[in-house]
Structure to design on (471 residues):
Protein backbone atom coordinates (compact mmCIF):
# COMPACT_ATOMS: atom_id res chain seq x y z
CA UNK A 1 0.00 0.00 0.00
CA UNK A 2 2.92 2.35 0.75
CA UNK A 3 4.32 2.00 -2.77
CA UNK A 4 1.08 2.40 -4.64
CA UNK A 5 1.78 4.12 -7.95
CA UNK A 6 -0.39 7.12 -8.81
CA UNK A 7 -3.28 6.62 -11.17
CA UNK A 8 -2.75 7.48 -14.83
CA UNK A 9 -3.83 10.62 -16.62
CA UNK A 10 -7.40 11.46 -15.79
CA UNK A 11 -7.08 10.02 -12.34
CA UNK A 12 -9.83 9.48 -9.87
CA UNK A 13 -12.61 12.02 -9.62
CA UNK A 14 -15.10 12.53 -6.80
CA UNK A 15 -18.17 14.35 -8.07
CA UNK A 16 -18.58 17.44 -5.92
CA UNK A 17 -22.16 18.70 -6.13
CA UNK A 18 -22.66 20.02 -2.62
CA UNK A 19 -24.47 16.98 -1.20
CA UNK A 20 -22.95 16.11 2.10
CA UNK A 21 -19.63 15.15 3.51
CA UNK A 22 -17.03 14.07 0.97
CA UNK A 23 -14.06 14.59 3.27
CA UNK A 24 -14.33 11.01 4.57
CA UNK A 25 -14.10 9.48 1.10
CA UNK A 26 -11.19 11.71 0.18
CA UNK A 27 -9.36 10.69 3.35
CA UNK A 28 -10.10 6.98 2.86
CA UNK A 29 -8.62 7.13 -0.64
CA UNK A 30 -5.63 9.03 0.68
CA UNK A 31 -5.03 6.23 3.19
CA UNK A 32 -4.91 3.90 0.16
CA UNK A 33 -2.33 6.18 -1.43
CA UNK A 34 -4.65 7.75 -4.01
CA UNK A 35 -5.28 11.48 -4.35
CA UNK A 36 -8.74 12.14 -5.71
CA UNK A 37 -9.83 15.26 -7.57
CA UNK A 38 -13.03 16.90 -6.31
CA UNK A 39 -14.87 18.48 -9.20
CA UNK A 40 -18.20 19.34 -10.78
CA UNK A 41 -16.55 20.04 -14.14
CA UNK A 42 -17.98 17.91 -16.97
CA UNK A 43 -14.71 17.59 -18.89
CA UNK A 44 -12.73 16.56 -15.82
CA UNK A 45 -15.38 14.01 -14.95
CA UNK A 46 -15.57 12.58 -18.49
CA UNK A 47 -11.78 12.29 -18.69
CA UNK A 48 -11.34 10.53 -15.36
CA UNK A 49 -10.29 6.87 -15.15
CA UNK A 50 -12.77 6.26 -12.35
CA UNK A 51 -15.57 8.31 -10.87
CA UNK A 52 -16.96 8.23 -7.35
CA UNK A 53 -20.45 9.63 -6.90
CA UNK A 54 -21.01 10.26 -3.18
CA UNK A 55 -23.97 11.71 -1.37
CA UNK A 56 -25.36 12.16 2.09
CA UNK A 57 -28.63 13.88 2.80
CA UNK A 58 -32.03 14.14 1.18
CA UNK A 59 -32.75 12.68 -2.29
CA UNK A 60 -34.95 15.34 -3.91
CA UNK A 61 -32.72 18.26 -2.90
CA UNK A 62 -29.66 16.34 -4.10
CA UNK A 63 -31.39 15.76 -7.48
CA UNK A 64 -32.13 19.49 -7.67
CA UNK A 65 -28.44 20.20 -7.23
CA UNK A 66 -27.53 17.72 -9.98
CA UNK A 67 -30.06 19.31 -12.33
CA UNK A 68 -28.91 22.83 -11.54
CA UNK A 69 -25.36 21.91 -12.59
CA UNK A 70 -26.36 19.75 -15.56
CA UNK A 71 -24.69 16.72 -13.98
CA UNK A 72 -27.97 14.80 -14.22
CA UNK A 73 -27.28 14.52 -17.97
CA UNK A 74 -23.57 13.77 -17.59
CA UNK A 75 -23.53 11.01 -14.99
CA UNK A 76 -25.78 8.42 -16.72
CA UNK A 77 -23.69 8.64 -19.91
CA UNK A 78 -20.30 8.04 -18.30
CA UNK A 79 -18.28 5.16 -19.77
CA UNK A 80 -15.65 4.56 -17.08
CA UNK A 81 -16.28 2.69 -13.80
CA UNK A 82 -18.58 4.78 -11.59
CA UNK A 83 -19.19 4.02 -7.91
CA UNK A 84 -22.25 5.55 -6.25
CA UNK A 85 -22.08 5.53 -2.47
CA UNK A 86 -25.13 5.67 -0.17
CA UNK A 87 -27.36 8.45 -1.55
CA UNK A 88 -25.19 8.37 -4.68
CA UNK A 89 -26.30 4.78 -5.27
CA UNK A 90 -29.94 5.69 -4.62
CA UNK A 91 -29.81 8.60 -7.07
CA UNK A 92 -28.60 6.20 -9.80
CA UNK A 93 -31.93 4.33 -9.44
CA UNK A 94 -35.19 5.12 -11.29
CA UNK A 95 -36.77 7.09 -8.47
CA UNK A 96 -36.82 7.65 -4.72
CA UNK A 97 -39.74 7.86 -2.37
CA UNK A 98 -37.71 10.42 -0.40
CA UNK A 99 -39.15 13.72 -1.60
CA UNK A 100 -40.83 11.75 -4.46
CA UNK A 101 -38.05 12.44 -6.90
CA UNK A 102 -37.02 10.89 -10.19
CA UNK A 103 -33.53 9.46 -10.22
CA UNK A 104 -30.87 9.13 -12.91
CA UNK A 105 -32.38 5.88 -14.16
CA UNK A 106 -29.25 3.76 -14.42
CA UNK A 107 -30.41 1.02 -12.07
CA UNK A 108 -33.90 -0.20 -12.91
CA UNK A 109 -35.34 -0.12 -9.39
CA UNK A 110 -37.33 2.31 -7.22
CA UNK A 111 -35.96 3.36 -3.82
CA UNK A 112 -38.52 3.13 -1.00
CA UNK A 113 -38.67 3.80 2.76
CA UNK A 114 -38.28 1.11 5.40
CA UNK A 115 -41.52 0.22 7.13
CA UNK A 116 -41.88 1.08 10.81
CA UNK A 117 -41.58 -2.62 11.63
CA UNK A 118 -37.87 -1.81 12.01
CA UNK A 119 -36.09 1.17 13.54
CA UNK A 120 -35.56 3.92 10.98
CA UNK A 121 -32.89 4.99 10.14
CA UNK A 122 -30.95 1.75 10.05
CA UNK A 123 -27.68 2.75 11.72
CA UNK A 124 -24.73 0.45 12.21
CA UNK A 125 -22.93 -2.55 10.78
CA UNK A 126 -24.87 -5.05 8.71
CA UNK A 127 -23.72 -8.13 6.80
CA UNK A 128 -23.52 -8.32 3.02
CA UNK A 129 -24.46 -11.57 1.30
CA UNK A 130 -24.73 -13.25 -2.11
CA UNK A 131 -21.74 -11.29 -3.36
CA UNK A 132 -21.69 -11.38 -7.14
CA UNK A 133 -19.14 -8.95 -8.50
CA UNK A 134 -15.42 -8.30 -8.83
CA UNK A 135 -16.11 -5.38 -6.53
CA UNK A 136 -16.09 -7.96 -3.73
CA UNK A 137 -12.84 -9.72 -4.56
CA UNK A 138 -11.22 -10.92 -1.31
CA UNK A 139 -14.28 -9.85 0.67
CA UNK A 140 -15.98 -12.66 2.60
CA UNK A 141 -19.64 -13.50 2.50
CA UNK A 142 -21.35 -12.05 5.59
CA UNK A 143 -18.72 -9.34 6.03
CA UNK A 144 -20.02 -6.33 8.00
CA UNK A 145 -20.35 -2.90 6.41
CA UNK A 146 -21.36 0.40 8.01
CA UNK A 147 -24.69 1.84 6.88
CA UNK A 148 -26.91 4.71 7.84
CA UNK A 149 -30.08 5.13 5.80
CA UNK A 150 -33.87 5.26 5.91
CA UNK A 151 -34.59 4.35 2.27
CA UNK A 152 -33.49 1.26 0.36
CA UNK A 153 -33.42 -0.36 -3.07
CA UNK A 154 -35.38 -3.65 -3.11
CA UNK A 155 -33.81 -6.76 -4.59
CA UNK A 156 -33.71 -6.56 -8.39
CA UNK A 157 -31.84 -7.82 -11.44
CA UNK A 158 -28.91 -5.51 -10.71
CA UNK A 159 -28.43 -6.71 -7.12
CA UNK A 160 -24.82 -7.80 -6.53
CA UNK A 161 -25.04 -7.93 -2.72
CA UNK A 162 -27.98 -8.21 -0.39
CA UNK A 163 -28.54 -7.55 3.30
CA UNK A 164 -31.36 -8.20 5.73
CA UNK A 165 -33.15 -5.53 7.75
CA UNK A 166 -36.70 -6.72 8.31
CA UNK A 167 -36.66 -7.63 4.62
CA UNK A 168 -33.91 -8.52 2.13
CA UNK A 169 -32.72 -5.48 0.21
CA UNK A 170 -29.97 -4.51 -2.23
CA UNK A 171 -26.83 -3.43 -0.41
CA UNK A 172 -25.02 -3.16 -3.75
CA UNK A 173 -26.08 -2.81 -7.39
CA UNK A 174 -24.30 -3.07 -10.72
CA UNK A 175 -25.18 -2.39 -14.33
CA UNK A 176 -22.30 -2.38 -16.80
CA UNK A 177 -19.74 0.17 -15.67
CA UNK A 178 -22.01 1.51 -12.92
CA UNK A 179 -21.66 0.24 -9.38
CA UNK A 180 -23.59 1.37 -6.32
CA UNK A 181 -23.18 0.54 -2.65
CA UNK A 182 -25.67 1.45 0.05
CA UNK A 183 -23.02 1.11 2.75
CA UNK A 184 -20.06 3.42 3.36
CA UNK A 185 -16.88 1.58 2.32
CA UNK A 186 -14.87 4.59 3.52
CA UNK A 187 -16.19 3.98 7.05
CA UNK A 188 -16.25 0.18 7.02
CA UNK A 189 -12.83 -0.62 8.41
CA UNK A 190 -10.43 -2.84 6.44
CA UNK A 191 -13.23 -4.69 4.64
CA UNK A 192 -14.52 -1.40 3.25
CA UNK A 193 -11.01 -0.44 2.18
CA UNK A 194 -10.78 -3.72 0.28
CA UNK A 195 -13.89 -2.76 -1.71
CA UNK A 196 -12.44 0.66 -2.52
CA UNK A 197 -9.22 -1.03 -3.67
CA UNK A 198 -11.22 -3.42 -5.84
CA UNK A 199 -13.04 -0.50 -7.43
CA UNK A 200 -9.75 1.29 -8.07
CA UNK A 201 -8.41 -1.87 -9.71
CA UNK A 202 -11.29 -2.24 -12.17
CA UNK A 203 -10.24 -1.83 -15.78
CA UNK A 204 -11.21 1.51 -17.23
CA UNK A 205 -12.48 1.41 -20.80
CA UNK A 206 -11.99 5.07 -21.67
CA UNK B 1 -28.10 -9.10 10.33
CA UNK B 2 -27.54 -5.68 11.85
CA UNK B 3 -25.04 -5.97 14.69
CA UNK B 4 -25.24 -4.25 18.05
CA UNK B 5 -22.56 -1.60 18.44
CA UNK B 6 -19.80 -1.11 21.02
CA UNK B 7 -18.77 2.54 21.34
CA UNK B 8 -15.82 3.80 23.39
CA UNK B 9 -16.26 7.43 24.46
CA UNK B 10 -13.32 9.84 24.66
CA UNK B 11 -13.60 12.95 26.81
CA UNK B 12 -11.64 15.79 25.23
CA UNK B 13 -10.38 18.98 26.83
CA UNK B 14 -8.37 21.50 24.81
CA UNK B 15 -7.62 18.90 22.17
CA UNK B 16 -6.39 16.22 24.60
CA UNK B 17 -8.06 13.20 26.18
CA UNK B 18 -8.96 13.83 29.78
CA UNK B 19 -9.25 10.51 31.53
CA UNK B 20 -6.86 7.62 31.64
CA UNK B 21 -3.34 8.58 30.77
CA UNK B 22 -1.54 5.57 32.25
CA UNK B 23 -3.22 2.84 30.30
CA UNK B 24 -2.95 1.03 27.01
CA UNK B 25 0.46 0.69 25.47
CA UNK B 26 0.38 3.93 23.58
CA UNK B 27 3.19 6.38 23.07
CA UNK B 28 0.89 9.23 24.01
CA UNK B 29 -2.45 8.15 25.43
CA UNK B 30 -3.39 11.79 25.85
CA UNK B 31 -3.48 12.13 22.09
CA UNK B 32 -7.07 11.54 20.97
CA UNK B 33 -5.98 10.67 17.43
CA UNK B 34 -3.68 7.89 18.60
CA UNK B 35 -6.31 6.58 20.97
CA UNK B 36 -8.95 6.67 18.22
CA UNK B 37 -6.65 4.73 15.92
CA UNK B 38 -6.05 2.13 18.62
CA UNK B 39 -9.78 1.60 19.15
CA UNK B 40 -10.59 1.52 15.45
CA UNK B 41 -7.99 -1.21 14.94
CA UNK B 42 -9.22 -3.18 17.93
CA UNK B 43 -12.85 -3.68 17.10
CA UNK B 44 -14.71 -0.53 18.16
CA UNK B 45 -17.76 -0.06 15.93
CA UNK B 46 -17.88 3.67 16.36
CA UNK B 47 -16.34 6.36 18.55
CA UNK B 48 -17.80 9.31 20.43
CA UNK B 49 -15.73 12.39 21.22
CA UNK B 50 -17.17 14.53 23.95
CA UNK B 51 -15.56 17.96 24.19
CA UNK B 52 -15.61 19.46 27.65
CA UNK B 53 -13.34 22.46 27.02
CA UNK B 54 -14.58 25.83 28.09
CA UNK B 55 -12.02 28.06 26.40
CA UNK B 56 -12.62 30.59 23.69
CA UNK B 57 -10.52 28.68 21.18
CA UNK B 58 -12.50 25.50 21.76
CA UNK B 59 -14.33 25.56 18.44
CA UNK B 60 -11.19 25.78 16.38
CA UNK B 61 -9.32 23.24 18.50
CA UNK B 62 -12.19 20.77 18.15
CA UNK B 63 -12.53 21.36 14.41
CA UNK B 64 -8.80 20.72 13.95
CA UNK B 65 -9.03 17.55 16.00
CA UNK B 66 -12.00 16.26 13.99
CA UNK B 67 -10.04 16.74 10.77
CA UNK B 68 -7.09 14.74 12.12
CA UNK B 69 -9.34 11.94 13.38
CA UNK B 70 -11.18 11.75 10.05
CA UNK B 71 -7.86 11.52 8.22
CA UNK B 72 -6.72 8.66 10.42
CA UNK B 73 -9.54 6.25 11.27
CA UNK B 74 -11.74 4.06 9.07
CA UNK B 75 -14.83 3.77 11.28
CA UNK B 76 -17.57 6.33 11.95
CA UNK B 77 -17.40 8.84 14.79
CA UNK B 78 -19.68 11.30 16.56
CA UNK B 79 -18.66 14.63 18.06
CA UNK B 80 -20.50 16.31 20.91
CA UNK B 81 -20.08 18.94 23.60
CA UNK B 82 -21.09 22.57 23.43
CA UNK B 83 -22.59 22.36 19.93
CA UNK B 84 -25.32 24.97 19.68
CA UNK B 85 -25.71 26.17 16.11
CA UNK B 86 -26.10 25.11 12.49
CA UNK B 87 -22.73 26.70 11.83
CA UNK B 88 -21.00 24.59 14.53
CA UNK B 89 -22.42 21.45 12.97
CA UNK B 90 -21.51 22.44 9.45
CA UNK B 91 -17.85 22.93 10.38
CA UNK B 92 -17.63 19.57 12.17
CA UNK B 93 -19.35 17.61 9.38
CA UNK B 94 -17.25 19.31 6.71
CA UNK B 95 -14.15 18.34 8.64
CA UNK B 96 -15.19 14.69 8.48
CA UNK B 97 -17.34 13.95 11.54
CA UNK B 98 -20.06 11.45 10.66
CA UNK B 99 -22.52 12.58 13.29
CA UNK B 100 -22.86 15.32 15.87
CA UNK B 101 -24.61 15.15 19.20
CA UNK B 102 -26.50 18.00 20.82
CA UNK B 103 -27.69 18.07 24.41
CA UNK B 104 -28.33 21.21 26.50
CA UNK B 105 -28.64 23.42 23.43
CA UNK B 106 -31.52 21.26 22.17
CA UNK B 107 -33.34 21.52 25.49
CA UNK B 108 -32.96 25.29 25.49
CA UNK B 109 -33.93 25.56 21.81
CA UNK B 110 -35.76 22.42 20.60
CA UNK B 111 -36.21 23.97 17.13
CA UNK B 112 -32.45 23.46 16.67
CA UNK B 113 -33.12 19.72 16.16
CA UNK B 114 -35.54 20.47 13.29
CA UNK B 115 -33.08 22.87 11.70
CA UNK B 116 -30.18 20.44 11.92
CA UNK B 117 -32.23 17.48 10.67
CA UNK B 118 -33.59 19.34 7.66
CA UNK B 119 -30.23 20.86 6.78
CA UNK B 120 -27.97 17.82 7.27
CA UNK B 121 -30.37 14.86 7.48
CA UNK B 122 -31.58 12.98 10.55
CA UNK B 123 -28.94 10.32 10.08
CA UNK B 124 -26.19 12.58 11.41
CA UNK B 125 -28.08 14.17 14.31
CA UNK B 126 -27.75 12.43 17.67
CA UNK B 127 -29.59 13.93 20.63
CA UNK B 128 -27.85 13.17 23.93
CA UNK B 129 -30.08 13.09 26.98
CA UNK B 130 -28.78 13.03 30.55
CA UNK B 131 -31.41 12.08 33.11
CA UNK B 132 -31.81 10.91 36.67
CA UNK B 133 -34.68 9.79 38.80
CA UNK B 134 -36.29 12.28 41.15
CA UNK B 135 -39.07 10.81 43.33
CA UNK B 136 -39.34 7.88 40.95
CA UNK B 137 -39.62 10.03 37.80
CA UNK B 138 -36.89 10.33 35.20
CA UNK B 139 -36.04 14.01 34.77
CA UNK B 140 -33.78 15.46 32.09
CA UNK B 141 -30.68 17.24 33.45
CA UNK B 142 -28.41 19.79 31.82
CA UNK B 143 -24.75 20.78 31.96
CA UNK B 144 -23.39 17.28 32.30
CA UNK B 145 -26.18 16.24 34.62
CA UNK B 146 -25.77 19.06 37.13
CA UNK B 147 -28.85 21.15 36.46
CA UNK B 148 -32.30 19.52 36.78
CA UNK B 149 -35.18 20.48 34.47
CA UNK B 150 -38.89 19.79 34.63
CA UNK B 151 -38.70 17.73 31.44
CA UNK B 152 -39.72 14.10 31.64
CA UNK B 153 -37.19 11.79 29.94
CA UNK B 154 -39.75 9.84 27.91
CA UNK B 155 -41.72 12.91 26.79
CA UNK B 156 -38.52 14.65 25.73
CA UNK B 157 -37.26 11.56 23.90
CA UNK B 158 -40.49 11.33 21.90
CA UNK B 159 -40.28 15.03 21.11
CA UNK B 160 -36.71 14.83 19.82
CA UNK B 161 -37.67 11.88 17.61
CA UNK B 162 -40.60 13.87 16.21
CA UNK B 163 -38.31 16.82 15.57
CA UNK B 164 -35.99 14.69 13.47
CA UNK B 165 -33.28 13.20 15.70
CA UNK B 166 -31.75 10.13 14.05
CA UNK B 167 -30.56 8.53 17.27
CA UNK B 168 -30.68 9.04 21.04
CA UNK B 169 -27.72 8.74 23.38
CA UNK B 170 -29.23 8.22 26.83
CA UNK B 171 -27.00 8.57 29.90
CA UNK B 172 -28.42 7.69 33.29
CA UNK B 173 -26.79 9.99 35.84
CA UNK B 174 -27.90 7.52 38.51
CA UNK B 175 -25.77 4.82 36.90
CA UNK B 176 -22.89 6.80 35.39
CA UNK B 177 -19.62 6.05 37.18
CA UNK B 178 -21.12 3.34 39.41
CA UNK B 179 -19.99 0.35 37.31
CA UNK B 180 -23.17 -1.37 38.47
CA UNK B 181 -24.81 -1.77 35.07
CA UNK B 182 -26.90 0.30 32.67
CA UNK B 183 -30.38 1.75 33.34
CA UNK B 184 -32.05 -1.12 31.51
CA UNK B 185 -35.63 -0.51 32.51
CA UNK B 186 -35.63 3.07 31.23
CA UNK B 187 -33.65 2.00 28.16
CA UNK B 188 -36.15 -0.72 27.29
CA UNK B 189 -39.00 1.77 27.59
CA UNK B 190 -37.21 4.22 25.30
CA UNK B 191 -36.46 1.50 22.79
CA UNK B 192 -40.09 0.35 22.77
CA UNK B 193 -41.68 3.82 22.75
CA UNK B 194 -39.45 5.15 19.97
CA UNK B 195 -38.57 3.99 16.48
CA UNK B 196 -35.00 5.31 16.27
CA UNK B 197 -31.85 3.63 17.61
CA UNK B 198 -30.98 4.07 21.30
CA UNK B 199 -27.41 4.18 22.61
CA UNK B 200 -27.06 3.11 26.26
CA UNK B 201 -24.59 5.03 28.40
CA UNK B 202 -23.63 5.07 32.06
CA UNK B 203 -22.87 2.17 34.37
CA UNK B 204 -20.73 -0.28 32.40
CA UNK B 205 -18.56 -2.34 34.75
CA UNK B 206 -18.61 -5.93 33.54
CA UNK B 207 -19.22 -7.85 30.32
CA UNK B 208 -22.49 -9.09 31.80
CA UNK B 209 -23.67 -5.46 31.98
CA UNK B 210 -23.35 -5.19 28.20
CA UNK B 211 -25.25 -8.44 27.67
CA UNK B 212 -27.98 -7.15 29.97
CA UNK B 213 -28.32 -3.79 28.26
CA UNK B 214 -28.68 -5.43 24.84
CA UNK B 215 -31.17 -8.04 26.03
CA UNK B 216 -33.12 -6.45 28.90
CA UNK B 217 -32.43 -2.84 27.92
CA UNK B 218 -33.11 -3.52 24.20
CA UNK B 219 -30.33 -1.05 23.40
CA UNK B 220 -29.00 -0.78 19.86
CA UNK B 221 -25.54 0.30 20.99
CA UNK B 222 -23.63 0.57 24.26
CA UNK B 223 -21.18 3.32 25.13
CA UNK B 224 -18.52 3.19 27.81
CA UNK B 225 -15.31 4.98 28.72
CA UNK B 226 -13.24 3.87 31.67
CA UNK B 227 -13.72 0.09 31.36
CA UNK B 228 -12.11 0.35 27.93
CA UNK B 229 -9.58 3.07 28.70
CA UNK B 230 -8.23 1.21 31.73
CA UNK B 231 -8.28 -2.11 29.83
CA UNK B 232 -10.58 -3.67 32.40
CA UNK B 233 -12.45 -5.04 29.40
CA UNK B 234 -11.01 -5.38 25.91
CA UNK B 235 -13.39 -4.88 23.02
CA UNK B 236 -12.47 -8.19 21.39
CA UNK B 237 -13.07 -10.19 24.60
CA UNK B 238 -16.34 -8.35 25.09
CA UNK B 239 -17.53 -9.01 21.55
CA UNK B 240 -16.64 -12.69 21.71
CA UNK B 241 -18.56 -13.01 24.96
CA UNK B 242 -21.58 -11.15 23.56
CA UNK B 243 -21.58 -13.43 20.51
CA UNK B 244 -21.67 -16.45 22.82
CA UNK B 245 -24.67 -14.83 24.50
CA UNK B 246 -26.39 -14.72 21.10
CA UNK B 247 -26.00 -10.99 20.48
CA UNK B 248 -25.04 -10.06 16.90
CA UNK B 249 -21.56 -8.54 16.85
CA UNK B 250 -19.03 -7.60 14.20
CA UNK B 251 -15.62 -9.21 14.67
CA UNK B 252 -12.50 -7.84 13.04
CA UNK B 253 -11.01 -9.84 10.20
CA UNK B 254 -7.26 -9.76 10.79
CA UNK B 255 -6.53 -12.03 7.88
CA UNK B 256 -7.19 -9.47 5.18
CA UNK B 257 -3.95 -8.52 3.53
CA UNK B 258 -3.38 -6.98 0.16
CA UNK B 259 -1.52 -9.24 -2.22
CA UNK B 260 0.76 -8.06 -4.98
CA UNK B 261 -1.61 -8.83 -7.82
CA UNK B 262 -4.27 -6.50 -6.51
CA UNK B 263 -2.16 -3.43 -5.90
CA UNK B 264 -3.65 -0.36 -7.42
CA UNK B 265 -2.32 0.24 -10.89
Amino acid sequence: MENTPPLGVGGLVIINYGAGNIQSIKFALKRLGVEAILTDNETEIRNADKVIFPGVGEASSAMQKLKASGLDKVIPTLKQPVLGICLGMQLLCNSSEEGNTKGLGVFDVDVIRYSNEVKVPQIGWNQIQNLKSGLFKNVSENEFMYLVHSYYAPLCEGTIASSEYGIQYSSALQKGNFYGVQFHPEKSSTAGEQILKNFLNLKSKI
Amino acid sequence: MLSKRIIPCLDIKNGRTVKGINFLDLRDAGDPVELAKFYSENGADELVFLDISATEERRKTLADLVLKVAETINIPFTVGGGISSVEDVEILLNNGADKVSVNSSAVKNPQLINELASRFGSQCIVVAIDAKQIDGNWKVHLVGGKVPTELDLFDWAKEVERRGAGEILFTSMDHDGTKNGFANEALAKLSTDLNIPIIASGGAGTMQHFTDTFIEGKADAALAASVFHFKEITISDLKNELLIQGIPMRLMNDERRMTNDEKIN
Notes: The CA atoms of residues 89 and 253 of chain B lie 33 Å apart.
